[in-house]
Amino acid sequence: MNQDTDAASLPPAAAAAPSRAPAPAGTAASRRRALVTGGSGDLGGAICRQLARDGFHVIVHANGNLARAEAVVADITAAGGRAEALAFDVADAGASSAAMAALLEAGPVQVVVNNAGIHDDAPLAGMSAAQWHRVIDVSLHGFFHVTQPLLLPMARTRWGRIVSVSSVAAVLGNRGQANYAAAKAALHGASKSLAREMASRGITVNVVAPGVVAGRMAEAAFPPEVVKQMVPAGRAGTPEEVAAVVRFLCSDAAAYVTGQVIGVNGGMG
Question: 180, 209, 264, 266: which one is catalytic?
Answer without folding.
Answer: 180
